[in-house]
Amino acid sequence: NTLDMLRKVPLVTVDSDDKIQLKGSSNYKIFLNGKPSNLLSSGNASEALKSMPANSIKNIEVITDPGAKYDAEGIGGIINIITVRNKLQGYTGTVRANASSFGTFGAGGYLSMKVNKLGLIANYGYNNRNTPWYDSRTIRETEHDVIAANKPTRLIEEGRSKNRAPFHYGFLEASYELDSLNLLSIGAN
Question: What is the pTM of this model?
Fold first, then answer.
């Protein structure tokens, strides 16, 4: 997928939680074919990139000095994903599933459609984290406590936790190329 491709791009790092950084900063924008994309500007950009098939990508450009147009926005760079034009004409779809031994599982789907100047992209995902019970115990001893008039203190903390977090996410984007310089797009997350 495209996120795996991004892991190999110089100046771009993707950590184990799929958080993307450009030159060590999360202050960047991701463009699709040189234009901003609502699909990739959402908080789930890594999920969207996981959904995009790698064979639809021609190359990935990293722009570390985006110029005066973007200085006012205060961004540190642009990751521009260039798609193979003829691959995006028609329909592309993927279905994905994931699971771990820690009780996490999920599934989702991605659909892309490009017909002439009209483009539609939809992505939906579900993840459920249901970790086993975790017991913890902490002991802190102080031999000299100024507030308690030099009396030693002892603090014992015991706890038990369980993480259960099901969540859904999705987005839909429609775009229309008015001409070679203007693109009209609308998206919902």
Answer: 0.53
The arithmetic mean of pLDDT across residues 142-171, rounded, is 80
Please state, in angstroms and rounded to a whole number, the distance separating the CA atoms of residues 132 and 104: 10
**Identity of the amino acid at 41:** S
**Phi/psi at 145 (nearest 5 deg)?**
-120, 115
| Count of CB atoms situated within 10 Å of the CB of 95 | 10
Looking at residue 87, its pLDDT comes to: 47
Look at residue 188 and give its three-state secondary structure. strand
Instruction: State how far the Cα of 50 lies from the Cα of 54, in Å rounded to an integer.
Output: 9
Instruction: For residue 166, give Cα distances in angstroms to 41, 106, 127, 130.
Output: 23, 9, 6, 8
Element housing 3 (H / E): helix 2-6
Are the C-beta atoms of 126 and 166 separated by less than 8 Å?
yes
Is the distance from CB of 60 to CB of 81 less than 8 angstroms?
yes
E runs forming strands in 8-77? 12-14, 20-22, 29-32, 35-36, 57-63
**Quick one: pLDDT at residue 45?**
80
Say what percent of the chain tops pLDDT 70.
Answer: 87
Question: Facing residues of 154 across strands?
Answer: 141
**pLDDT tier for residue 61 given thresholds of 50, 70 and 90:** very high
